[in-house]
UniProtKB/TrEMBL annotation:
The protein's name: diguanylate cyclase
Taxonomic lineage of the native organism: Bacteria, Pseudomonadati, Pseudomonadota, Betaproteobacteria, Burkholderiales
Cited CDD domains: GGDEF (cd01949)
Pfam families xref list: GAF, GGDEF
Catalytic activity: 2 GTP = 3',3'-c-di-GMP + 2 diphosphate
The enzyme's E.C. designation: 2.7.7.65
Database matches in SUPFAM superfamilies: GAF domain-like, Nucleotide cyclase
PROSITE patterns hit by this protein: GGDEF
Domain GGDEF span(s) in chain numbering: 207-341
EC class (word): transferase
Domain of life where this protein originates: Bacteria
Amino acid sequence: MSLNSTDFGLTTLQVNSGFSKILAEKFEAKIARFERVGMGLFDVANCFVTFGRVVGRSGLTERSITEMEAAFSDEFPLSDEVLVLSDLNVHGEFGQHRFVAGPPMIRFFASFPVYGQDGKLVACLRLLDYQPHIFDDEQRLLLADLAIMVERELALSAVCQNQLELMKQNRRLKRDTLVDPLLGTWNKPAIIRSLRLEMERCANSGKPMSLLFLLPDQIAELRAKHGMVLTDQILVRMVSRIRSCIRPFDALGRFDNDQFLIVLPGASRLVVMAVAERIRLSVMMHSEWIENAEVSLTVCVGLASTDVYPDADPEILISLAEKALLSAKRAGNNTVVQATPGQPDMMI
């Protein structure tokens, strides 16, 4: 079985192109955009949006100018204070700093707080240059505007991330409603839907499609004798063996209690017979040990194919496969029967 999520509306998140771009863009790229805007808007050598540390972010050596600028910025802790140092040379405490008195000889520094959705300080917007800048009220307002834009980007990113998580949860919940919780196969509504979709696809492409209806022979007896827990464990292992005998894109579903329906798109009556025999032999060759006794397991299988019944709709094809399964049961355990028009019990 293959859980083909596309068939059940469980594809990768369906979002519009704008939202897709927001989700796809890395956080670092969003921050870098604001830093470029800051450099151009204020005509400064560098602009950082720092969340506490920017050293090492560039990937350059510590002797590079960018890393020196980052190291200087990192010496200022995040603060709610709006700080504008127009000329570091005239500020005694900074005039002797190694990056002010020596290379790269930083002369201007400004810092503006950036807040999160909860109103708490999360970052600072910082400007650095190698010549003094006189910041008037208009430039301070522009710096405040840029900080607000950063805040809104952070808020939007948080909203998008929450939306993404909700969509993932909804996808998981939807998937859970289609899957048998014990065996991990499709449940009855899901396997029937898969059948309808595959029949339509195969009909449109002129390919055959086959059904395989399967019933473990000893399961009911084992359940009555050994209980649900042990029998379910045996059933899980049996389903695993069945999966190993079919293709990844074939669909395996629990149709009713211990009955299983397998949809094989593109499979003719000859192919499905070979698959059924492979499953029968695989189950038969793997006996189970129950309470120190070896128990042989077998299955009965009923088959129906659209190359035998080209006009059959999904309900009729299921009915034919089920009747073939009943014929297999009447013939004895460990039997495969294929529905053909000449069989009396295949009349519909």
